[in-house]
Design brief:
Blueprint: H1 3-10, E1 22-32, E2 37-43, E3 55-59, E4 69-72, E5 81-87, H2 95-98, E6 106-110, E7 127-133, H3 138-143, H4 147-152, E8 155-162, H5 169-180, H6 185-191, E9 192-198, H7 209-214, H8 217-222, E10 232-238, H9 240-252, E11 266-270
Parallel strand pairs: 7-8, 7-10, 8-9, 10-11
Antiparallel strand pairs: 1-2, 1-6, 2-5, 3-4, 3-6
Bound molecules: adenosine-2'-5'-diphosphate.
Adenosine-2'-5'-diphosphate is lined by residues 133-134, 161-163, 199-200, 208-210, 239, 241-242, 245.
């Protein structure tokens, strides 16, 4: 099938040529969670390889030089489709258009996934803390469906904090999907703990994750001792401010930041699109 045919079928405006070095994939499904958040899945290029937790640049075929933004891949490395979880920004150069995509539309994807929120960038440990706010949960949606995560860590704590209750729904969905998954369901049911909290709407659990770490309420809730660099590992994904503050708490606990070429006790990545 040619790109011309794809365009005609999907009714998407693609009079612009597909740039060199990118895949042109089709939207398979779209799910809107709130007026600010949505998830979509696209076809997977046969040649694409990535590690769970990595991100990739995506864009739309709506300009001679399309706008590309970094998006964490929210599906695991073995999945037949590629999943993304996105914010909608009214005048965001990409998201103002991206939020309108429909099944059959074309998404452009640069060929090289990269990133530091990968199991390889952490030294072995017992408990992995995945700390996220907002759309920062996306790379963890990939990692909690990755068998290696459960081989490497005995316990996986997925922390997700949002302003409002409705923004936590995607997290509940992916945790339920992991626990029901034929590949990782048994491990996720035993080893994965989801801690969801809100900061601006009342819910069962309230407060910023930084507060929950500082006052110890996170560890009380889990029934575990405070952070210990011997056994605990961390991954952080959220806004710049949140990264800085959580990183400072990990460092205060004696943990050091790692990278792909220098694995250590924790790794950090910005949730890119704003
Ligand atoms: P808060 O409502 O107190 O600002 P945002 O949508 O602004 O990225 O925020 C998403 C979530 O992250 C909100 O619950 C917000 O709490 C929280 N948050 C924002 N900044 C920080 C920070 N520096 N440390 C910890 N949590 C933060």
């Amino acid at each position: 099938m040619t790109d011309q045919n794809v365009t005609a079928e999907s009714m998407q405006e693609t009079e612009f040529p597909i740039p060199a070095g990118v895949y042109a994939e089709k939207v398979v499904s779209v799910k809107h969670y709130t007026d600010r958040l949505f998830q979509f899945r696209i076809t997977r290029p046969a040649a694409l390889r990535f590690r769970s937790g990595e991100f990739v640049m995506i864009g739309l075929p709506n300009a001679e030089k399309p706008v590309f933004r970094a998006y964490s891949i929210a599906s695991p490395s073995w999945d037949e489709q590629i999943e993304f979880f996105s914010i909608k920004v009214e005048d965001g150069p990409l998201t103002e258009h991206l939020q309108k995509v429909q099944p059959g539309d074309t998404i452009l994807m640069r060929k090289k996934p990269v990133g530091t929120l990968v199991n390889d960038a952490l030294i072995p440990g017992k408990t992995l803390y995945m700390i996220s706010t907002g759309t920062g949960i996306a790379p963890f949606a990939s990692l909690i469906r990755e068998p290696e995560t459960y081989e490497k860590f005995e316990k996986v704590v997925l922390s997700h904090t949002c302003r409002e209750v409705a923004e936590l729904t995607y997290g509940h969905d992916i945790v339920a999907a992991a626990k029901n998954d034929p590949l990782v369901g048994e491990e996720a049911t035993k080893q994965l703990i989801h801690v969801a909290s809100t900061t601006r709407e009342s819910s069962d659990r309230m407060g910023r994750i930084t507060t929950q770490i500082e006052d110890g309420s996170l560890f009380d809730h889990l029934g575990v001792p405070p952070l210990n660099p011997e056994t605990d590992r961390g991954m952080i994904c959220g806004s710049m401010e949140m990264l800085k503050d959580v990183k400072a708490l990990f460092e205060k606990a004696g943990m050091t930041e790692g990278a792909n070429n220098r694995p250590a006790e924790f790794v950090v990545e910005r949730a890119f699109v704003d």
